[in-house]
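Here is an idea for our session: we take a single protein and study its fold together. Once you have written the record down, we can walk along the chain together.
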Amino acid sequence: MAWGESNVWLAGQDNQDLYQQLLDDAEAAPARNAERKKVVHPEEMPWEMSRQGLLKHLINEQMNTRIETMDAYMQIVPPGSRSGKHRHLAEEVLYVLEGQGYDMHQDCEVEITDDFHWTPQDKVQKFEYEAGDVIYVPPNTIHQHFNASPDRPLRLISCINRIFKQCGLNDLEQIEDAPEYSPGVTLTPEMIRDFLKKPS
């Protein structure tokens, strides 16, 4: 053979129909998608008492919906309380449904070489908001939500692109837990109503 490296690249006897699997997957997608939800009803949206706080998942990769690229949840911060504090590589947008509050944001210096390094900046910024406002959280910003009302809940809708996770960049770090967080708790409507009434 004319190529000196042929002894190397001709090695191996494993055969797999990987390209055909891509074709088969594309052909099966319409029928598969027809079985996936385009409308999600409240009773199909799971609750979670997470380290970030009280969440009702609206759209999630594990919920068998037609949404391919985005996750969304409603976050409820009880009167006088706060969310957890975390940082993630993907940018996030939140719509303030109810109440008033403020965010604390701390940007980070990022260096991506063979490894991924981030260093929090000294400056911490406060952003106030109320129902009807939209909150933008830049990539890799440490952030936390605070309910400024002593007697009304703060409700936020969070949307985040899951493409970072699909690209192997699910850089999510929990820095502080929400006060209400309790591992393994099973939420009921009665418990949630209690969270909304009482200051933490």
Notes: The radius of gyration is 22 Å. Residues 18-34 form the longest helix (17 residues). Residues 41-197 form a domain with the Jelly Rolls fold (CATH 2.60.120.10).
